[in-house]
């Protein structure tokens, strides 16, 4: 376990080097939610704006898995560097977590900024932080697993970028992550809940008292969906990702 | 002799029906450099990728150090160091970082990773450039970074797919020297298009074509495939190809004709004939390239 952890951090440290050398790259990571914060606040005031803040936490950590990670996977595949890792005692889960951690580094400043804003503005009680951390961890892991599996099917960076952006749109922009689930007509809410980012955002909003859909039954559904997606993501990595090619 | 890689009836059919390997067999030994040569599309890279556990075979069996590459894949990978064909380093990382983090990622401790990185960079003559970003290096140096990564693993089996492609002659020879030093207690399997490289390095060579091994042996053993140890270069006029065909196998070589005589007597007869016609003729010893060309042409015929 300690060896696996040290292997994971080695990969993460190596892939994080470009970000450490060029801190300007961090700015791009939270530019995207800031734009939405501005737009939504303009339309609906801070009542809607707070949902952007909650949703941005999910958006930032999931982005690192489903958009940024696949591009790194394909870049390393293209350079045949991934082949060197496949033909070594590096398990695909170690590689995946190493990559995921390195990509998460880009999101951490944004997450911290939004957490500080939420705490300072009183939208988030301190007691909600443990729940938020668990939700963010599961969201990040699910995003990494999905992003990694998809990326192993691509060899072209343009194609994977297009696919990752489409997935980002489908998982982070369309569902009620940056806006309230309550805005969706009741008969269509189940469809939104099928997407794990909705459940993750709802768990944060419920923990902060920002959602009316907060009955224990709802909360159970949110947790179940998020955990099921995360576990399925790892089954997908182990069973369906093209680590050793066929 | 200790067997290191044993491949039997190796087959690979890609989706779409392309049959890259058809029952290939090979065995490599400890303290040996084994070269695979063959034309483009012969199955060299497919073979190396299967042995390197990057690609699943569709038929056959491979054991590396007695471990099955399908059943014991995690154990096999502990013993492998690979350099894939046309691989390139990450342009945003420095030379040292490539090797050091690769060794750390394989599960070595920091002290061991540091020591191995230093050793590999010295061996590959990259120590002076250890802090350079790989984007600033020449193509040959970038290739050496990848070889250094494989060397630093201290793996018992090194699989190198065209490792010296893009290196200048001096760097290539220096890499050959390193590989020869490294073969002690290891088995090195490399693919190459360069017959000069195979001749300089290989203890044994497999010539493969259309997914099958068509010849296997030491350089001297392979040269026995030709009827004589000499070949003749002739200027392209004076004697027709049909007439030359009586003396042996005729082949084109740039603007000249190269003739592989059918026997020793044919050389004497032909030399007398061309001299009587005041043509130029050179008699040269045959090389591995001659063997290769003859075998591949024969296979394609």
List the helices and strands and how they pair.
The complex is a heterodimer of chains A (246) and B (301).
Chain A (H helix, E strand, L loop, with lengths): L1 H20 L2 H55 L2 H6 L5 H30 L7 H23 L5 H17 L15 H5 L2 H12 L8 H25 L6
Chain B lengths: L2 E11 L5 E11 L2 E6 L6 H8 L7 E6 L2 E2 L4 H5 L2 E4 L11 H11 L4 H14 L15 H14 L4 E5 L7 H14 L4 E6 L2 H7 L2 E6 L2 E6 L1 H5 L6 E5 L6 H5 L2 E6 L2 E6 L2 H13 L4 E5 L2 H13 L1
Parallel strand pairs in B: 3-8, 3-9, 6-7, 7-8
Antiparallel strand pairs in B: 1-2, 1-4, 4-5, 9-10, 11-13, 11-14, 12-13
Which range does the strand content of chain A fall in?
Answer: under 5%
How many strand segments of chain A? 0
Class by SSE composition of chain B: alpha/beta
- Percent of residues of chain B in helical segments? 25-40%
Q: Return the string of H and E elements of chain A.
A: HHHHHHHHH
| Content-based structural category of chain A | mainly alpha
Describe the protein.
The complex is a heterodimer of chains A (246) and B (301). Chain A is mainly α. Chain A has one domain (2-239). Chain A contains nine helices and no strands. Chain A has helices at 2-21, 24-78, 81-86, 92-121, 129-151, 157-173, 189-193, 196-207, 216-240. In chain A, helix 2 runs antiparallel to helix 8 (196-207). The radius of gyration of chain A is 18 Å and the shape is globular. The model of chain A has no long low-confidence stretch (mean pLDDT 89). Chain B is of the alpha/beta class and 301 residues long. Chain B is 36% helix and 28% strand. Chain B has helices at residues 44-51, 73-77, 95-105, 110-123, 139-152, 169-182, 195-201, 219-223, 241-245, 264-276, 288-300; strands at 3-13, 19-29, 32-37, 59-64, 67-68, 80-83, 157-161, 187-192, 204-209, 212-217, 230-234, 248-253, 256-261, 281-285. In chain B, helix 3 (95-105) packs across helix 4 (110-123) and helix 4 crosses helix 5 (139-152). Chain B starts with a strand and ends with a helix. The mean pLDDT of chain B is 91. Chains A and B meet through helix 1 and helix 3 of A and helix 2, strand 6, helix 3 and helix 5 of B.
